[in-house]
Design goal:
The chain has about 475 residues and is α/β, with parallel strands linked by helices. It has three domains: about 50 residues, no CATH class; about 260 residues, Type I PLP-dependent aspartate aminotransferase-like (Major domain) (Aspartate Aminotransferase, domain 2); about 100 residues, Aspartate Aminotransferase, domain 1 (Alpha-Beta Complex). The chain has a seven-stranded mixed beta sheet with strand order 1-7-6-5-4-2-3, sandwiched between helices. The protein has a three-stranded antiparallel beta sheet with strand order 10-12-11, covered by helices on one side. Strands 8-9 form a two-stranded antiparallel sheet. Helix 5 runs parallel beside helix 11 and helix 6 runs parallel beside helix 7. The radius of gyration is 26 Å and the shape is globular.
């Protein structure tokens, strides 16, 4: 490595071993090929007022070891759910990922061929994705699944546009109680297609979708009715069959959004007549990872028109012509990369295949009985937490009189403290509280959304109740 020698060599002459093609002669040759004499010419389109005209205040030069040591020191300031119990969910939840899931996903034959462009050399990942689709279909009681979508939000956006294409209608009815970011993503998908998104009110006592409001709003302009079960605020919708019937009576599609972990104990959407199912696969084998990447679940019933309009890819199993052996291929690829752009249903890509593989491995490890036991464990722990927290003076939980799965609302209207003060006091006690809902649902007052999963121990739940009791001055 060359070093600056006080003026005989410019910074542009320095060779950096960690930067490709930084050798002076190589750089000159590359600049000659593109017709420039100085690297600055590459940035002529950047206005002068936006260019930094001074050197960055960076330490160094230092060795790789010293840089790594410094970064590890900075990273040690972060606190994760491993360092303190986190009761935050709201779309990305703390679940346990078995070690074997990571071991399989990180194998080179899966990691390097995660997107199977050449079927003849990608049989392993194609078979794995076929198994993922099969398990998603069994889990949701649907007939066809793709593999796969970016996340729940993008899957919902694609489902809405799919419904509009099939029905030639332009209105989507969605519950008022929905994740704000998911709702915003849906709007992003809907606006260019000219779709109108209309919210359905909820019962203030139970949180359930207001069937009468649905009846008032649904019409021959409605392409689809969407519900989430469990809902964003954790309660289980108990009138899904009525919603499905109302949608189908008006020749609209019925779209159900699900948390796959809940399907070990809840009825799958295929059994209450869903046409399309979307959801978030992160709870199955995928770490939180600072909020991503996530995994969008997308499935539909066996209908030729529905299947042809599905976004993304569908992997199929077939037989070879020459020796009649089982083989796997991309049976349906309705995105613009594979077919004419005007015929594509979406430009959704496939970079969630590794996440889909992780979910397939996790589902295979659990099996039907394991999934049921996991769902029961989560529901029991969440119920225990609600019973404990409701004993604290100044706390009401849950707000809605409905069965809940793993998330529930905690209201602090009776407490003489603001939401951020409560949360900050929990953080001081090394507990991460729930999500503040005051901006999303101002009508709920000082309310937060708490999450309890299989990762939370009885001691951690007891500790949460004790600290909240101390903070609010009540008794738990």
């Amino acid at each position: 490595m060359h070093c600056l020698d006080g003026g005989n060599m410019t910074e542009g002459d320095v060779t950096y071993p960690h930067i490709p093609n930084s050798v002076l002669n190589v750089k000159k040759q590359m600049m000659g090929e593109v017709g420039i004499t100085n690297v600055e010419e590459l940035y002529v389109d950047v206005p002068q007022k936006f260019r930094l005209r001074k050197r960055l205040n960076l330490p160094g030069p230092t060795s790789e070891y010293e840089v790594k040591k410094h970064l590890e020191k900075l990273l040690a300031k972060n606190k994760t759910s491993r360092d303190m119990p986190s009761f935050l969910g709201a779309g990305c939840w703390p679940h346990y990922t078995p070690a074997v899931v990571d071991a399989i996903v990180q194998r080179a034959e899966f990691l390097t061929s995660y997107t199977p462009y050449q079927a003849e050399i990608s049989q392993g990942i194609l078979q794995a994705l076929f198994e993922y689709q099969s398990m998603i279909c069994e889990l949701t009681a649907m007939d066809v699944s793709n593999s796969s979508m970016y996340d729940w939000a993008s899957a919902l956006g694609e489902a809405a546009r799919m419904a509009a294409r099939l029905t030639q209608r332009a209105e989507i009815l969605v519950p008022r109680i929905i994740n704000f970011e998911r709702f915003a993503t849906l709007h992003t998908y809907a606006e260019p297609a000219g779709l109108k998104i209309s919210p359905i009110c909820y019962d203030s006592e139970t949180g359930q979708i207001d069937i009468e409001d649905l009846k008032r709003k649904i019409s021959n302009r409605t392409a689809a009715v969407y519900i989430e079960n469990p809902s964003y605020l954790g309660f289980i919708e108990t009138r899904v069959k009525e919603v499905a019937e109302e949608a189908h009576d008006h020749k609209a599609l019925f779209i159900a959004g699900v948390d796959p972990i809940s399907l070990g104990i809840l009825r799958p959407p295929g059994e209450y007549d869903a046409d399309i199912v979307v959801g978030e696969g992160q709870p199955l084998g995928n770490h939180m990872n600072y909020g991503g990447p996530l995994l969008g679940i997308f499935a539909c019933r066996d209908d030729r028109q529905l299947i042809r309009q599905m976004p993304g890819r569908v992997i199929g199993m077939t037989r070879t012509i020459d020796n009649n052996k089982t083989g796997f291929s991309m049976a349906l690829q309705t995105r613009e990369q594979h077919i004419r752009r005007e015929r594509a249903t979406s430009n959704i890509c496939t970079n969630e295949a590794l996440c889909a593989l992780a979910s397939a491995v996790h589902l295979a490890l659990l099996g039907p009985q394991g999934l049921r036991e996991l769902g029961e464990t989560i529901m029991h722990k969440a119920s225990y937490a609600m019973q404990l927290l409701t004993k604290i003076e100044g706390v009401k939980t849950p707000l809605f009189k409905s069965p809940h799965f793993k998330e529930f609302t905690v209201n602090f209207d009776s407490a003489d403290m603001r939401m951020h003060e409560i949360h900050n006091n929990l953080l001081k006690a090394k507990i991460h509280g729930g999500k503040d809902l005051t901006k999303e649902f101002p009508e709920l007052g000082k309310t937060a959304l708490y999450c309890v999963t299989e990762t939370h121990s009885k001691e951690e739940i007891d500790r949460l109740a004790q600290v909240l009791g101390d903070v609010l001055g009540g008794k738990s």
